[in-house]
Amino acid sequence: MSISVLLAGFSLGISLILAIGAQNAFVLKQGLKQQHVFVVCLICALSDAILISAGVAGFGAIVQKFPLIEQIARYAGAAFLFFYAAISFKSAITTDHALKAEGKEVGGVVTAVFTCLAFTWLNPHVYLDTFVLLGSISTQYEGQQLAFGVGAVTASFVFFFSLGYGAKLLIPIFKKPVAWKVLEFVVGFIMLVLGISLLI
User: Most buried by CB count within 10 Å: which residue of 40, 87, 113, 128?
Assistant: First the structure.
């Protein structure tokens, strides 16, 4: 397994998920609340691993042949983002909450799991990044696609677990109610913009 190809896959993989998006914002919030962090990070990383593996294996061609798949994901994803944006805005305006004590769970794990799955699998961009982009670029490394895929998958695990557990460093700031209100508003704005971008 070529180290240079593995690093190429890692570099591209990390660059594609580095920008703050709906999924990353959700992982950050869970990390700040210290709720189900491991499960949420694992779901995100495993989902990426499945999609990247499928893309590298050549299934990116399916999306290109059947654009209806992308259309369905686009509208379902936009609807979900608008719904979550509304929840975040409502929380920012009506809820006066400081960060809960570390380790105290407020939301159920089932809710966290399904919300995380929705953010991941209803996001059309994730299919473009993994199925199409990573899948097509991997063909440049003839005979080394496995190394490229392993590098990209590793990037997802490193990023999501770093984001989820690294959020703990920000906990002192979010013990103040105003900081949490600002975060809720920013998250809501991100969801709203992303939802609109899916429809344009």
Answer: 40
